[in-house]
């Protein structure tokens, strides 16, 4: 497989075939798409107050700009006087000459609160005669400073790559948009399934399973006392099984933001290695053990609090459904094995093959 590059088009070519053209998204278009949602950064000030920076697309450039150098590349700043005055007490508007104004601005940008400086890429005033940004397309941005008693704005002009670097850095994050769910969605089933755990077996071990076998769990969400932690949207629910009531009690719930995305890494194959077919016996089989689905609508889910009782729709522990690579194939019973949760198979599609006699 080889890659061919043409202006504006990326493509992948398979030996003996035609290239598959891939549409290329440039940094400018990607940056504008990211700005469809405003981004904000919360900055802790020395007096304990919190300042909020909000960046969005668009400003009116009506005066000469000041070139800044930042970690994200060159930036042009416009209308920055009031914001510098509020943050540092330095009034650049009363400077006697343009060089004096630039000198005051250089001092004021260096005197910004550390958290604000970090969010803006540690800006420093560049050479007064430096040209405007022309190496690549730029975006006009509005930067707003929100303090407990005042709101101030200034303009920024950044390259697309610089803006993307800023948005990907701490403490910037998209501004959450509150969306009220339509009333009809509240009656929808929340479809929250309870998975006890998983076990990964080689194909040979999987083919040898039969009714009565006990399978150890490679990963388990429950302990032998019937407690589990269930991630639901932005929260984690700590559940406890109440056998007398045939339901789960929500013991506690905490806010848990989604984990940061980690890119998968693939090892490069040895080009000199001889070609060989995939051995099916080496393909792992993932057994999953499901208790069932909670009897819960979207509206009821929003009302869940510590002490709430949640019931299963299909069955009650210790019965579980056994899935192989996502396909239901049998059932089992939760058991304790050496102090840990395991599953004994109670229904299986195939009997154990007879033992070979010498």
Structure keywords:
358 residues, mainly beta, Chemotaxis protein chec, Surface presentation of antigens (SPOA), eight-stranded antiparallel sheet, 7 helices, elongated, disordered N terminus, SpoA-like_sf, FliN_T3SS_HrcQb, YscQ/HrcQ family type III secretion apparatus protein, cytoskeletal motor activity
Describe this structure in words.
This is YscQ/HrcQ family type III secretion apparatus protein. InterPro entries: FliN-like_C (IPR001543), FliN_T3SS_HrcQb (IPR001172), SpoA-like_sf (IPR036429), T3SS_SpaO/YscQ/SpaO (IPR013385). Residues 282-348 form the Flagellar motor switch protein FliN-like C-terminal domain. One of its GO terms (molecular function) is cytoskeletal motor activity. By secondary structure, this protein is mainly beta. It has 2 domains: 27-174, Chemotaxis protein chec; 183-252 and 281-347, Surface presentation of antigens (SPOA). 15% of the residues lie in helices and 38% in strands. The chain has helices spanning 27-34, 81-88, 98-110, 114-119, 160-167, 203-207, 298-302, and strands spanning 2-6, 9-13, 20-23, 39-44, 50-57, 66-70, 73-78, 124-125, 138-147, 150-159, 173-174, 193-201, 214-216, 219-220, 227-232, 235-242, 247-255, 285-293, 309-310, 319-324, 327-337, 340-347. The strands form 4 sheets. An 8-stranded antiparallel sheet has the order 8-6-7-10-9-5-4-11. It has a 7-stranded antiparallel sheet with strand order 13-22-21-20-18-12-14. It is elongated.
């Amino acid at each position: 497989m080889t890659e061919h590059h043409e202006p504006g088009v990326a493509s992948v070519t398979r030996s003996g075939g035609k290239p598959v053209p891939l549409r290329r998204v440039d940094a400018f278009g990607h940056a504008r798409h990211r700005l469809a949602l405003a981004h904000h950064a919360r900055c802790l000030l020395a007096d304990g107050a919190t300042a909020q920076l909000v960046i969005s697309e668009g400003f009116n450039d009506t005066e000469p700009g000041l070139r800044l150098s930042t970690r994200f590349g060159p930036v042009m700043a416009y209308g920055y006087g009031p914001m510098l005055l509020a943050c540092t007490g330095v009034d650049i508007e009363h400077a006697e000459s343009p060089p004096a104004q630039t000198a005051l601005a250089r001092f004021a940008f260096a005197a910004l609160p550390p958290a604000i400086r970090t969010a803006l890429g540690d800006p420093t005033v560049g050479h007064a005669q430096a040209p405007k940004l022309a190496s690549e397309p730029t975006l006009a941005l509005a930067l707003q400073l929100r303090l407990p008693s005042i709101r101030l704005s200034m303009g920024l002009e950044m390259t697309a790559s610089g803006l993307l670097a800023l948005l990907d850095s701490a403490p910037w994050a998209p501004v959450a948009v509150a969306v009220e769910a339509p009333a009809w969605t509240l009656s929808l089933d929340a479809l929250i399934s309870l998975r006890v755990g998983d076990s990964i077996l080689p194909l040979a071990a999987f083919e040898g399973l039969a009714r009565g076998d006990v399978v150890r769990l490679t990963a388990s969400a429950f302990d032998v006392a019937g407690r589990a932690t269930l991630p639901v949207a932005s929260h984690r629910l700590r559940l406890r099984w109440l056998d007398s009531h045939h339901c789960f009690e929500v013991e506690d719930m905490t806010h848990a933001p989604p984990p940061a995305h980690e890119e998968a890494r693939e090892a490069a194959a040895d080009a000199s290695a001889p070609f060989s077919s995939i051995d099916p016996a080496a393909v792992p089989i993932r057994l999953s053990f499901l208790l069932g689905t909670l009897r819960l609508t979207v509206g009821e889910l929003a009302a869940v609090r510590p002490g709430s009782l949640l019931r299963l729709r299909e069955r009650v522990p210790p019965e579980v459904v056994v899935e192989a690579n996502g396909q239901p194939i049998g059932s089992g019973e939760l058991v304790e094995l050496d102090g840990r949760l395991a599953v004994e198979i109670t229904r299986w599609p195939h009997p154990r093959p007879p033992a070979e006699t010498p």
